[in-house]
Amino acid sequence: MLKLTPEQQALQARARELAQTHFAPKAADVDRTEAYPWESVALLRDAGFLTMTLPTSHGGMGASFQDAVIVIEEVSKACASLGRVVVDATMGAIGMVRRYGTPEQLDLAAGLLRAGDKPAILITEPDTGSAATEMSTRADRDGDHYVLQGDKYWITGGGVSRLHIIYARVFDDGVEQGIGAFLHVRDPAQPDGLVIGERIPAMGIRGIPETHVHLRRLRVHRSMLLATPGGLRRSFASLMKVYNAQRVGAGTVALGIAQGAFEEAVRRVKARRQFGRPLAEFQGLQWMLADMSVQLEAARLLLHAAACSGSDLPDMHSAAQAKTFAGEACFKVCNDALQLFGSSGYGRDQPMERHLRDVRMFTISGGTAQILRTQVASVVLGMKLPQTRTGYAELAGRARD
Ligand SMILES: CC(C)(COP(=O)(O)OP(=O)(O)OC[C@H]1O[C@@H](n2cnc3c(N)ncnc32)[C@H](O)[C@@H]1OP(=O)(O)O)[C@@H](O)C(=O)NCCC(=O)NCCSC(=O)CCS(=O)O
Ligand SMILES: Cc1cc2nc3c(=O)[nH]c(=O)nc-3n(C[C@H](O)[C@H](O)[C@H](O)COP(=O)(O)OP(=O)(O)OC[C@H]3O[C@@H](n4cnc5c(N)ncnc54)[C@H](O)[C@@H]3O)c2cc1C
C-alpha cells in the first residue's frame, strides 16, 4: 500500500475537498456541453494547483511530481477534463521550461500559469503521430526570428491555451539542425500565424477542445527557442526526457477516472437488490470488485514509483511501464464498473458510460501502449529498437564505422 507523508495526506485532502465540492457536481454538464470549464479552472488556479510544480520564487509550491500525481488523481476522480488541465499545467510543458528555459522564458510561462493558463504541447501532425521524429513542421531562421510553417492536430486546449510549446524541425541557412521546441503565446486579441483550426469531435474528456493548429509563417523570436543541452541535434531526446512526466500525469488521470467509477460501483452493488438480496452478496461480483481494487492499487503504485524515479525527472522506462499499465487496467476497471451497473451503466443519464469514454484515450495519446511497450522492451533488451524498415541496417552500418 502506498504511504504518503502527513503533508501529502493534507494536500490530498485539500484537493479532494475542492474536487468533490465544486467539480464532481458539474462533471456531467462539462461532458454534455463540451465547454471548457473556465470557472472551475479559476478555482484550481486559486488553490495553487496549476502552479504547484513551479518554484516558490515563481509563485509555485515547489511541489514534486509525486505531489502533482496526488492532486491529479483527486481532481480526475471528480472531473477528467479538469484532471487533464492540472497535468498540462504541472508536468510536461512546464517541466520543459523549468528544465531548459531561460529566466525570461520561465517568468513568461509562470506568469501565464499564475493567470490560470493551461499550456498546450504541439507535437503530432496528421501524417506523424507515433513517428513523431518524422514531423514536417519547420522553423526557418530569418535574422533574429524563426518562421514556423506546418500543421499540427489533436492539440489539447486548441483555442483556450495561451502558452504553446511547438515542436519543429529547425533550419539555419537552409541546413537542418534537429527538432527543437519554441514557446509561443497566443493572444486572442492579436491574431498571428498560429491559427486555431477545426475542433476534432472527441469520444471522451470533452471539456477540453482537441483541435487542428495551423502554423502559417508564424514569426517567433529566437529567444523563444528552448536551449537544450547538447544543442539542437540532441534536443528531441532532451525534450522527451521531460515529456516522460506528462506520461505519468496522463496515466494518473486514467487512475482517477477508474477510481471514481470503482467507488460508484461499490456503492451500487450494496444498494441494488436482485433475487431478494444485494448484488454485493454474489461471489462473481465480489471477485470482480477484488480484481478491480488490485488493478487500481497496482496502477497507483506504478505511477507513484514512476513519479519518483530518476534523479529529478521520471525516467523513460518507469513512465512507459506505468502509463501502459494504468491506461489498460483503468479501461478494464471502468468497463467492469459499467457491467456492475447493468442497463443503468449503459444509459447516458448515468455516469458510467462517460467514465468509459473518458478513460479510453490513455492507451492512445501521449505515446500509444504499443509505442510505450517498445520503449520498455528496448530497456529490457538493452537494445535500440528502430521502427523504420531500414533502421537495423543503419544501426549495423554505424557500428561498423
Ligand atoms: C521517440 C519516438 C517518436 C520514436 O522515434 P524514433 O524511432 O525516430 O526515435 P528514437 O531513436 O526512439 O528516439 C530519438 C532519441 O530520443 C530519445 N527518446 C525518445 N523518447 C524518449 C523518452 N520518452 N525519454 C527519454 N529519451 C527519449 C531516444 O532515446 C533517442 O535518443 P538517442 O539518440 O538514442 O540518444 C516514439 O517512440 C514515440 O515516443 N512516439 C510517441 C510520440 C508521443 O508521445 N507524442 C506525444 C504527443 S503530445 C500528446 O499526445 C499529449 C497528450 S497527453 O495525454 O498529455
Ligand atoms: C485525446 C487525445 C489528445 C491528444 N493530445 C495531443 C496534444 O495535446 N499534442 C500532441 O502533439 N498530440 C496529441 N495527441 C496525439 C497523440 O500523441 C497521438 O494520437 C499518438 O502519439 C498516436 O499517434 P496516431 O494517433 O497518429 O496513431 P498512429 O501512430 O497512426 O498509430 C496507429 C496504431 O498503430 C500503432 N503503431 C504505430 N507505430 C507502431 C509501431 N512502430 N509498433 C507497433 N504499433 C505501432 C499504434 O500503437 C496505434 O495502435 C492526442 C491524442 C488524443 C487521442
From TrEMBL:
Its cofactor is FAD. Its EC number is 3.13.1.4. Residues 5-105 form the Acyl-CoA dehydrogenase/oxidase N-terminal domain. Keywords: FAD, Flavoprotein, Hydrolase, Oxidoreductase. One of its GO terms (molecular function) is acyl-CoA dehydrogenase activity. It comes from the Bacteria. Residues 237-380 form the Acyl-CoA dehydrogenase/oxidase C-terminal domain. Residues 120-216 form the Acyl-CoA oxidase/dehydrogenase middle domain. InterPro entries: Acyl-CoA_DH_CS, Acyl-CoA_Oxase/DH_mid-dom, Acyl-CoA_Oxase/DH_mid-dom_sf, AcylCo_DH-like_C, AcylCo_DH/oxidase_C, AcylCoA_DH/ox_N, AcylCoA_DH/ox_N_sf, AcylCoA_DH/oxidase_NM_dom_sf. It catalyses: 3-sulfinopropanoyl-CoA + H2O = propanoyl-CoA + sulfite + H(+). Belongs to the acyl-CoA dehydrogenase family. This is 3-sulfinopropanoyl-CoA desulfinase. It comes from Piscinibacter sakaiensis.
